[in-house]
């Protein structure tokens, strides 16, 4: 069985080498959808009976490890020296330095890598992260899929 939980957050970014608008500093209302697979729990009386995993727990882990870190942050590529240096001059500014240019594809892949470890260490093999879908806008999204991210 497969379940999906969606969360939203706001963040700024830019794609410094982009040929068009995206090289400017701008922001998005991002959405992240986390898809997990597992067996439906069949233990009468348990709070999560009939569920793969309680959606509220899916949310809590995603919020703690990705969404709260990225929400209202500026996501800046470590090679984007002009912006990274400028942001470092702002006292207490919420800046997240990324190892790759912060496209929807790379952010989806980064979130997958973080969350895969988290769900695995919390729930072992019973729950598997299958996909992280990251919406940059309502019309543009990227999917990080297990088969392309993990060798298993
Ligand atoms: N494959 C990708 N292409 C683009 C990405 C990306 O992450 N992956 N990112 C951008 C920009 O960051 C941009 O903010 C999105 O731009 P745009 O295509 O303009 O998207 P909109 O939904 O705002 O488009 P409208 O046509 O104005 O609705 C660019 N490309
Ligand atoms: Zn953008």
UniProtKB/TrEMBL annotation:
Chain residues that bind Zn(2+): 13, 26, 28
Record-annotated active site: 22 (proton acceptor), 72 (charge relay system), 136 (charge relay system)
Domain of life: Bacteria
Keywords for this protein: Lyase, Metal-binding, Zinc
Cofactor binding, per record: Binds 1 zinc ion per subunit.
Entry annotated with the keyword Protease: no
Pathway: Purine metabolism; 7-cyano-7-deazaguanine biosynthesis
Enzyme class, first EC level, given as a word: lyase
Reported cofactor(s): Zn(2+)
Presence of keyword Lyase: yes
EC number of the protein: 4.1.2.50
Catalytic activity as recorded in UniProt: 7,8-dihydroneopterin 3'-triphosphate + H2O = 6-carboxy-5,6,7,8-tetrahydropterin + triphosphate + acetaldehyde + 2 H(+)
GO MF terms held by the record: 6-carboxytetrahydropterin synthase activity; metal ion binding
Family: Belongs to the PTPS family. QueD subfamily.
NCBIfam families reported for this sequence: queuosine_QueD
Protein name, as recorded: 6-carboxy-5,6,7,8-tetrahydropterin synthase
